[in-house]
Amino acid sequence: MALRPIHDRVMVDIDSLGDFEIAPKKAYLSLRRKKQFAMVGPATKTHVKIGLNAKQLEAGGRLIAQKPGGMCQYKVRLAVPDEVDDDLVGWIRAAYDEAGGEQTTRTRSRGWPRTPSRTRIQAYDVATSRYWRSTFRAAVPSSTSTSACCDA
Fold it and tell me: Does 68 fall in a domain?
């Protein structure tokens, strides 16, 4: 079974929860609000693993408790898209609610916002079940100098 249909089904259901940030990592996606509430990534060639950060859940059945001190308190392994059911969405909702409200925006005293000199592209390669990153230098307009916009 391919991982992409499982991943897409999970992400559609998570998108319905509300606003959150997706932070691609080397081998998984970190889903964050004020803090990380879940991670989604390949467990094997045929399974997707969802890690959950929620303290009030009770382990049992598909919800497997992890060792204390780890990144996630619970994990769920999915082999087919039909395993994304109301129980799983409820567990993800509990982790989402526990992760807090909107993430606060950071401000800088000088030169904010600044035009980035590098842009990072991140994508998921379905064939190898891995994420890849590519960095390239963005073109800076000749009329705007970096020092002029940053020295206030």
Answer: yes
